[in-house]
Amino acid sequence: MSMQYSATPTFDPTDSQKTVHVGYKNHSNRNTQTRVRRNRLKFLLLFVVLLSFSLIAIQSFHGAFKWTRFKLPGFGIGRECVYLPNDDSNAYGGLPSHYTLNSGDKIPSVALGVWKAGRGEVGQAVKTALERGYRHIDGAWIYGNELEVGHALKESKVPREEVWLTSKLWNTAHAPEDIEPALDDSLQKLGTNYLDLYLIHWPVAFSSGPEAYDADLTANPYPTWKKLEEMVEKGKVRNIGVSNFNIQRMKNLTANPLKILPAINQVEINYFLPQPKLVEWSKQSGILLEAYSPLGSDKRVKESLNAPVVKEISEELGITPAQVMISWHVQRGTIVLPKSVTPCRIVENWHG
User: Global pTM?
Assistant: First the structure.
């Protein structure tokens, strides 16, 4: 059999069969093929080693950069993670780190929300957040994770007085006689003797026991509010507020002879639900808004983060779409409550 020789051995990266053309045609040369396989294996191993060292180096020296991006297993599939300098400062471009409530207390402008944070993961999320500088944790009795949050707060070693802690009164405990026991249950689980903020979770009351609608306390939450004022006087709560109240419900509540004005109204605010009228009314009334689902409701997060105007600002400022959205909330004078149990996203949401 004749042997045809090609002067230069070649490797074709476009070859779908991943074959190496060694220059010999119509001839089976086992020694040559073996050498090629060995060379390919050496190249692959060298590539893996170099890649590993590169990633380690990037992580080691990431403090020299504004942030470093790459994907790693376990840090969110399909979304780029952002690693930032290892410090505890959030850097939302000169935007306020705290707001002053009508009580005079200062509340951090960015919090970790723990809604839907499951058992076994919420504790680590809280510890990660506190390690990276968060000092505001937003929870609720109905979330079912207050005990684990309390353990994480204790294990973090961050002094209690440095952490702003919020919980919420559930619908079945609006009756005045049920409020203090419900509050005490949250305090015990969280491992603290006071809350910085206690909210009426929804403007809907249920009778205690089986959840049955309570029309009287829903229409007029003033008896519930008066009992919450007593909790402030007892020192169990420093500030009180509401959640999911629209303007009319706020007017109905504040029309009563209140000793303490609501400090906060926590509602859903995001790209698709900006709530401009509620924002303006709240500013005029001296009541701060907190935004939950700030990046979008569950099914619309990707849609809001991929909105053309958000992406345009993100590229112009060199920050992520999530950071654009959080900055927008703070710029409007709204406290923002992004939630995550993914370490890199917790960090990303804190830094700008």
Answer: 0.75
